[in-house]
């Protein structure tokens, strides 16, 4: 650890309001999903706590919005360095609260520091629309004010930092609300932030199920950036409408991958499997429907099952674990219910198919052989390690099937013929479309969903603009 980096203690957890660590009268805890044991107590914020945070954020906005991009970049990079210096504590805590294997926790922290350092290297140039003797017209972007970042439980550190960097860099102040299932690392991010940002610039409040609705209804909050399920996204948008808050919604997905007959099966199987099962499939942009050309279907499915059998399940601190548990009891019950459709709909599992009871919320990795297009495992977002394989032969038909969903987050096409793949890719209805990859993301690249997968985009210049109001300046040169 760098000698001057603040060292966090990961045993007690507080709200961060106006750069003070604050306790609440009531506390709660979440459950370690690998063993169902209670994690430490965290605050349950009240309306009064939120009002205090909003007042501090509003006050801080006045000075913070007047700092330069350079100053804000420096602060964000120093914050990233301190996160990096504390990565062992964060990784351990992330595995404890989320359940993901330790190596995947380190990966998430590595991504978060990259996002914190890279997003502020972008610039939001002013556009001069007219410059004559008489007048100059400039179109530019100004910060919105107090933003609120609502974060889900699958990637609590990356998804919080993916909001912190653009919100603060563009001159806004931000209140982060973690999921009640994974509040620990986000509260520690807030504590760390007290060393790098003025009071009120970055605050973190943990709470129960009522805190999100309190925030979306709060008249002092100008912008909500929400990441979570499509169902909750609709509620967020409805609530924000009452005060005309600006909203970005990053929602669920049901990503298809279309595999053409010319692929090198051995080369891509590990990629497709990992991109279906990373974080026990609890990633919005994991591959959730695999369409394989009928000419290679049997061989591909066999190879996929064989490879998946080599991936180890277990508690995240055990060596070489790939599959951790799903994150919480609600998700566990949801996936268990989806598993009942295997028997109920007469589906054919070629791997797994039954959940073995354990101390934690572990789901047996499962692969379903050619289920009907309307079966639940195809139409629903499982958010657990169960994936359906389907056959295709006609290009237009597979494109139509891939698009036949309310979701539109990501999709991919796999082929040696990159022209053909790009032709298919351009017809897919999703915010990201990859050829010969899936789930590639980068801090400088906008990311978001079509249809019920979201509204607006985060990251890249588009993501910076999402935290700004556009403004047109008409500058007359004489009276
Ligand atoms: P969720 O919608 O249940 O909760 C997300 C967050 O919203 C949590 O912090 C929760 O406390 C809060 N919340 C719940 N009800 C609210 C309300 N009425 N008003 C305001 N906030 C409220 O989602 P989840 O179960 O935590 O996450 C899983 C879902 O998130 C999946 O559908 C997944 O695909 C999606 N997701 C999307 C992205 C993306 O970038 N598109 C990334 C990760 C996860």
UniProtKB/TrEMBL annotation:
Enzyme class label: oxidoreductase
Superkingdom of source: Eukaryota
Annotated keywords: Oxidoreductase
Catalytic activity, as annotated: an aldehyde + NAD(+) + H2O = a carboxylate + NADH + 2 H(+)
Domain Aldehyde dehydrogenase: 26-472
Entry's EC annotation: 1.2.1.3
InterPro entries, per the entry: Ald_DH/histidinol_DH, Ald_DH_C, Ald_DH_CS_GLU, Ald_DH_N, Aldehyde_DH_dom, LUC3-like
MF terms (GO), sorted A to Z: aldehyde dehydrogenase (NAD+) activity
Positions in coiled-coil regions: none
Pfam families on file: Aldedh
Active site: 250
Family: Belongs to the aldehyde dehydrogenase family.
Name of the protein described by the UniProt record: aldehyde dehydrogenase (NAD(+))
Organism of derivation: Helicocarpus griseus UAMH5409
């Amino acid at each position: 650890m760098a000698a001057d980096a603040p060292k966090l203690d990961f045993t007690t957890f507080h709200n961060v309001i106006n750069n003070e660590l604050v306790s609440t009268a009531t506390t709660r805890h979440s459950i370690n999903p690998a063993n169902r044991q209670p994690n430490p107590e965290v605050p349950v914020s009240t309306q009064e706590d939120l009002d205090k945070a909003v007042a501090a954020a509003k006050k801080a906005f006045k000075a913070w919005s007047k700092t330069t991009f350079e100053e804000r970049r420096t602060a964000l990079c120093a914050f990233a360095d301190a996160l990096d210096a504390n990565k062992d504590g964060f990784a351990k805590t992330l595995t404890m609260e989320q359940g993901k294997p330790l190596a995947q926790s380190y990966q998430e922290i590595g991504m978060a520091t990259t996002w914190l350092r890279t997003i502020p290297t972008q610039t939001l140039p002013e556009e001069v629309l007219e410059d004559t003797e008489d007048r100059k017209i400039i179109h530019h972007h100004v910060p919105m004010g107090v933003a609120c970042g609502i974060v889900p439980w699958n990637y609590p550190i990356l998804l919080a930092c993916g909001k912190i960097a653009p919100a603060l860099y563009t001159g806004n102040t931000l209140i982060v609300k973690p999921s009640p299932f994974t509040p620990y690392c986000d509260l520690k991010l807030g504590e760390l932030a007290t060393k790098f940002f003025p009071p009120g610039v970055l605050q973190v409040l943990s709470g129960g199920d009522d805190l999100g609705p309190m925030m979306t209804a709060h008249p002092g909050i100008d912008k909500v950036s929400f990441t979570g399920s499509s169902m909750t996204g609709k509620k967020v948008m409805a609530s924000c409408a009452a005060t005309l808050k600006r909203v970005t919604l990053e929602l669920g997905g049901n990503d298809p991958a279309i595999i053409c007959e010319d692929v090198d099966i051995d080369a891509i199987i590990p990629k497709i499997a990992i991109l279906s099962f990373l974080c026990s499939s609890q990633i919005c942009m994991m591959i959730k429907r695999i369409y394989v050309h009928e000419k290679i279907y049997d061989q591909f499915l066999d190879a996929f099952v064989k490879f998946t059998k080599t991936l180890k399940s277990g508690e995240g601190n055990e060596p070489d674990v790939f599959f951790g548990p799903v994150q919480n009891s609600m998700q566990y019950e949801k996936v268990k219910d989806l598993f009942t459709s295997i028997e109920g709909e007469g589906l054919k599992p070629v791997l797994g198919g039954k959940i073995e009871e354990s101390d934690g919320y572990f789901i047996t990795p499962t692969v379903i052989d050619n289920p009907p297009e309307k079966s639940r495992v195809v139409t629903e977002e499982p958010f657990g390690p169960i994936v359906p394989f389907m056959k295709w032969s006609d290009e237009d038909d597979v494109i139509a099937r891939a698009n036949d969903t309310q979701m539109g987050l990501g999709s991919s096409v796999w082929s040696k013929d990159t022209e053909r793949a790009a032709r298919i890719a351009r017809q897919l209805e999703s915010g990201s479309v990859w050829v010969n990859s899936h789930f590639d993301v980068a801090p400088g690249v906008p990311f978001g969903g079509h249809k019920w997968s979201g509204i607006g985009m985060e990251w890249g210049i588009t993501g910076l603009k999402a935290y700004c109001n556009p403004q047109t300046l008409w500058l007359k040169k004489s009276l």
